[in-house]
Specification:
Layout lengths: L16 E5 L6 H7 L6 E5 L1 H17 L4 E5 L5 H14 L3 E6 L2 H12 L3 E6 L11 E2 L10 E2 L5 E5 H5 L4 H27 L5 H23 L2 H21 L8 H12 L6 H16 L3 H10 L13 H14 L6 H5 L3 H10 L4
Parallel strand pairs: 1-8, 2-3, 2-4, 4-5, 5-8
Antiparallel strand pairs: 6-7
Helix pairs in contact: 3-4, 6-7, 6-8, 6-10, 7-8, 7-11, 9-10, 9-12, 10-11, 12-14
The chain binds zinc ion.
The site of zinc ion (ZN) has 7 residues, from helix 10.
Length: 355
């Protein structure tokens, strides 16, 4: 997103409204109306989410005078994005709602961006920071890991719905947030070694969401309302930090490259955030941060702190560390600087208890 931070110009794009609390799903229609939006609505979601929550969402939309149609999202790929785009064109829709754990939100983000429609994010789990960020991870889009779109205009985070999500989804959110502690360190490193643009405010905002998880880990582990609400709010602010930075820099460093490398090396093992959490323990050690605190926070929050808990083998972890820098050669991190060999990578993983 070079244009956002070039020639001294810096574009910040942020969500306008965030509504979080119990039963706020039923207020979605009113919220959209309050933003002065009109027109038809296309809802992108997976079949299970639709079966559980579709009636509530369409009921709320109808109550506010919006008519809507549903597009079934099968996968976060271009086929789904194009299906949503076709529905938007067919209905002359001006609003796209992405409702789900992550893939439906990403599909809705890219489709609405391409059709110049407004996007509303309705997360049904607290598994990652894509709830509010301007980035969409879509397979087969330009070969990159995330497409730059715009942040959602509004976010409706129903804590009751999110509390009912599969327990493991919270692990993802916890790991994705602890990752901000190392991501921000990598950003500082790029500023110092490569003279890269660095935004103090965005960095501190992202870091704060990681610190919040350290402080609230036990509550999050209990999966009580207070802990889950804090987790959701921290995920939203981390995504906002990316919107302020105009790039994913504050949210994604070497621990994310490690996670992305494992997506390819060991497909299907571990959620995105579970892998970034493991990566954060190791990258914290390399950065001289308190890696034991990160490890302890993962444990307290009930998230995996060792690779075997998500089925990853020792060799896969080592391979993930070694392959991480080549996932994004231009994103300078501690792994690009240190260029670990396989012995060093294995020693790092062992020392930190990841393997
Ligand atoms: Zn992430």
């Amino acid at each position: 997103m070079a244009w956002a931070v070039s020639n001294g110009r810096h574009l910040m794009e942020l969500p306008s409204v965030v509504l979080a609390g119990r039963n706020v799903l039923d207020e979605t229609g009113e919220l959209i109306m309050g933003q002065g939006l009109t027109g038809n609505v296309v809802i992108a979601s997976g079949p299970n989410v639709w079966a559980n929550l579709g009636r509530r969402l369409t009921g709320s939309l109808e109550g506010a005078g919006f008519s809507s149609s549903w597009v079934r999202v099968a996968a976060p790929d271009m086929a789904s994005v194009e299906l949503v785009e076709r529905e938007v064109a067919k209905n002359g829709a001006e609003i796209v709602i992405g409702m789900g754990g992550g893939k439906s939100i990403d599909v809705a983000k890219l489709a609405s961006f391409r059709r110049k429609a407004h996007m509303i994010s309705v997360p049904t789990s607290a598994s990652h920071d894509g709830i509010s960020s301007p980035f969409a991870s879509i397979r087969g889009f330009g070969g990159s890991y995330s497409a730059v779109t715009r942040p959602p205009l509004a976010i409706v985070a129903d804590i009751g719905v999110i509390l009912g999500a599969p327990p493991r989804t919270f692990n993802g959110g916890v790991g994705d947030l602890l990752a901000k502690l190392t991501a921000v360190k990598d950003w500082q490193l790029a500023r110092d070694d490569k003279n890269e643009y660095y935004g103090t405010y965005a960095a501190n905002l992202a870091k704060m969401s990681g610190i919040m998880v350290e402080e609230e880990a036990a509550n999050i582990g209990r999966r009580n309302e207070e802990g889950v609400r804090g987790l959701v709010e921290a995920l939203i602010s981390a995504g906002v930090a990316a919107g302020i930075a105009g790039s994913s820099r504050p949210c994604s460093g070497a621990e994310h490259l490690f996670s992305h490398a494992l997506d390819r090396i060991a497909p299907g093992k571990g959620l995105h955030g579970e892998k970034t959490g493991l990566g954060a323990i190791m990258m914290a050690r390399l950065h001289g941060l308190d890696w034991e605190r990160i490890r302890k926070s993962l444990e307290e929050a009930g998230a995996p702190a060792a690779a075997k808990e998500v089925g990853l083998t020792e060799d896969e972890v080592v391979e993930g560390i070694l392959a991480a820098p080549s996932v994004r050669p231009e994103r300078y991190t501690i792994l690009h600087k240190l260029k670990l060999d396989s012995g060093q990578a294995r020693a790092l993983a062992k020392e930190t208890g990841v393997i």
